[in-house]
Amino acid sequence: MAAAWAGVVFMLLPDTIIPYDDDVGYLRSVVHTLQHGRPWTDDWLEPWAASLSAVTAALIRLTGSFSVEVESVLVVCAGLSVVLGVMLSMRRGVSWPGAVLSALVLLSFPTVLWKQTQFTSLAIYLPAMLGALLAAVGWYSSSHSWWR
């Protein structure tokens, strides 16, 4: 299911990198990270955006392809969001089909889907938030028997 969703996000991406909205700043952050040899954010971007720059720059150094890595980061983060969304729902007692459906409904909401196709830090924010929620639910439910 994660691979299928990642494929959907991949199909929605343009054939080449076309910066729109604030993608320009994030793309410049990757270029600056490559130039400076350490995580770097451009102008208005908060420090959290350094994670996107660092991951993308590291992959570019490994493969040598800027466009492939920008798209790969978006696709992998989208797939990871599905996995974590399903795990979070299942942790709360939802059946596997219901968990998959709830994750896909959340991720296909127009605003969320749109942001998954933009090269912004939301690509990393979304799976990070779902992972944090999963960790919190796991901790809280193990500490409080009435929670589950």
Description:
The chain has helices at residues 2-12, 23-36, 49-63, 66-91, 96-107, 110-116, 122-143. With 148 residues, it is an all-alpha fold.
Largest sheet: none
Mean pLDDT over all positions: 85
Determine Rg (CA atoms, Å). Answer: 17 Å
Can you tell me the overall shape? Answer: globular
Strand proportion: under 5%
- Provide the helix percentage: over 70%
User: What class, by secondary structure content?
Assistant: mainly alpha
Uncertain residue ranges: none
Instruction: List the total number of helices.
Output: 7
Order of helices and strands: HHHHHHH
The strand count comes to 0
Beginning-to-end CA distance, first to last residue: 26 Å
Multimer state: single chain
Features:
mainly alpha, 7 helices
In brief, what are we looking at here?
72% of the residues lie in helices and 0% in strands. It has helices at 2-12, 23-36, 49-63, 66-91, 96-107, 110-116, 122-143.
Outline the secondary-structure elements.
Blueprint: H1 2-12, H2 23-36, H3 49-63, H4 66-91, H5 96-107, H6 110-116, H7 122-143
Helix pairs in contact: 1-4, 2-3, 3-4, 4-5, 4-7
